[in-house]
Design brief:
- This protein is of the alpha+beta class.
- It is built from ten helices and eleven strands.
- The strands form two sheets. It has a six-stranded antiparallel β-sheet with strand order 1-2-11-10-7-8. Strands 3-4-5-6-9 form a five-stranded antiparallel β-sheet, covered by helices on one side.
- Helix 5 runs antiparallel to helix 6.
- The longest helix has about 45 residues.
- The protein starts with about 30 loop residues before the first helix and ends in a 17-residue tail after the last strand.
Length: about 400
């Protein structure tokens, strides 16, 4: 039975699972679990059906080596004991236990088994270090990129960060939400580059945004503060980053007492506004602007645009990891086309459906990180989610 993400296929009576944005640890494949035993059995059969001049010792040596990277220490030890026992047992069964070949084969398999135990120890220690690194990376991400509260300034908020690689928690995508006297202000951005340099820039942008969001009276003023902060940070760059360091970003502001949203786009993918009736509006800027950090190439006044923001509507902001996700045929994911005409109970359901749909579109893989932020203006009577056609033909 074909499965579809919530909101894109037939309704599922079960509540959607809240994903963490990280891939779960994978257990050993059943075939791998059985492989060492199958190799030992194959060695025994080969020894019995071939002439005495042929030896099956390579099979018995291979079994513990196969077990070493995947099994525990005790299970690897057990495989080694079974391999050595199989060699000795076959020699006794064939009445050749006192030959030099028995001693040679037994010592060979024993030595390989000891080597397999050493390999197992190295793999386990590496796994422990990797687990520690993941815990540290996750803590660092929570410090640099904290998940916003689900309710801010009377709005419903949901955020997701999907790393392109398993075990990678920190990248150049960012989001932040701040409740101020001017309204709820948000930023979603994408820093050029990867690694710690990108993380440092993320910290600069979010820190500058939180300060500016509280102090600047207009969204344009917030953008200017971010530009200056990146200019200061750019003075420490060298090499290609000196010329190509920039951050695409979109800023949004939802005033507390007005039914509008103000959007200012600096070279970022256009946000989407999903109406309570399923209508979708692409919030493309009237005057395209360069990303933040590229002020030396040209300056012009920033201009925020006002869009009606009705109760029940949801604003979706995202990074290019969503719009540039490709399937096996190289076709880009089009969030506007996929979401048009669909209704979701809340922002969490929307992001859950998008992440699942992207995984179906790409076959489970992605080449870029993806940050998603959904903001819903609540209404007393939320329309029921309608049934839709499957996402994948």
């Amino acid at each position: 039975m074909e499965k579809h993400p919530p909101g894109f296929g037939p309704e599922d009576p079960r509540p959607p699972r809240r994903g963490s944005g990280r891939l779960a640890a994978r257990s050993t494949h059943p075939v791998v679990e059985l492989l060492p035993g199958l190799i030992i059995v194959a060695g025994i059969v080969l020894d019995q059906v071939t002439p005495a001049a042929f030896t099956a010792s390579p099979f018995f040596s291979a079994a513990p080596l196969v077990a070493a990277p995947f099994f525990s220490f005790m299970r690897t030890l057990l495989v080694g004991i079974l391999s050595v026992g199989a060699v000795l047992g076959l020699r006794y069964f064939n009445n050749s236990a006192d030959g030099i070949e028995t001693i040679t084969e037994s010592l060979t398999v024993f030595t390989v088994s000891v080597l397999a135990l050493a390999i197992n120890g190295v793999v386990r220690r590496s796994g422990e270090r990797l687990a520690s690194a993941r815990v540290i990376a996750e803590a660092a991400q929570r410090a640099v990129l904290p998940t916003p509260e689900s309710r801010i300034g009377g709005l419903h908020i949901a955020a997701r960060y999907e790393a392109a690689e398993e075990g990678a928690y920190i990248g150049g995508d960012l989001f932040a939400v701040q409740d101020t006297e001017y309204g709820v202000r948000v930023v979603v951005g994408d820093v050029r580059g990867k690694g710690m340099g990108a993380v440092e820039t993320v910290a600069v942008v979010i820190g500058a945004f939180r300060e500016a969001a509280e102090q600047e009276r207009s969204l344009e003023g917030v953008a200017r503060r971010l530009e200056r902060a990146l200019a200061r940070e750019g003075r420490g760059r060298s090499g290609i980053d000196l010329f190509e360091g920039f951050t695409t970003a979109v800023l949004a502001e939802v005033p507390h007492a007005e039914g509008i949203v103000r959007v200012l786009n600096r070279g970022h993918p256009e946000p989407l506004l999903l109406g309570p009736d399923g209508a979708l509006t692409v919030l493309a800027p009237t005057d395209p602007a360069l990303p933040l950090g590229m002020g030396e190439l040209g300056t012009w006044p920033d201009r925020a645009e006002e869009i009606p923001y009705r109760p029940g509507a949801t604003l979706l902001l995202y990074t290019d990891g969503l719009s540039e996700a490709r399937n096996a045929d190289g076709v880009f994911y089009d969030p506007g086309e996929r979401l048009a005409g669909r209704i979701f109970p809340g922002p969490d359901d929307l992001l859950e459906a998008i992440v699942g749909d992207v995984r179906l579109h790409t076959g489970g893989g992605s080449t870029d990180d993806m940050a998603l932020l959904a903001i819903s203006r609540p209404t007393a009577r939320q329309p029921e989610r309608r049934r839709t056609m499957p996402v994948v033909p």
